[in-house]
Amino acid sequence: DSHNYGDLQVLLAGTCGGSIRPGRHLHFDGQRPLADLWLSLAQTAGSQRNRFADSTSPLELG
Predict the structure, then answer these.
(1) Which of 2, 29, 34, 59 is most deeply packed, by most CB within 10 A?
(2) Cα radius of gyration (the chain)
């Protein structure tokens, strides 16, 4: 039994105080680790982190 995490869909609720525009479907090409999303959300919330787990770079969520 093989698990495949490619093309994973994530539902994000909220706007992080207006920093993230709602009502959109975003698609990011390539093999982006899920940690890129967590890093992006942390930075949007004010964190100064530049890495999280196996992140490569933050996603543009604005």
Answers:
(1) 59
(2) 12
Give burial (CB, 10 Å; 0-12/13-18/19+) of 3: exposed
Cα 41-52-9 angle, rounded to 5 deg: 55
Whether the CB-CB separation of 20 and 14 falls below 8 Å is answered with yes
Q: How far apart are CA 16 and CA 44, in angstroms?
A: 7
The Cα–Cα gap between 32 and 30 comes to 6
| Nearest-angstrom CA–CA distance, 10 and 32 | 13
Residue 55, judged by CB atoms within 10 A of its CB (0-12, 13-18, 19+), counts as buried
Tens-place pLDDT, residues 30-55:
888 999 999 999 999 999 999 999 99
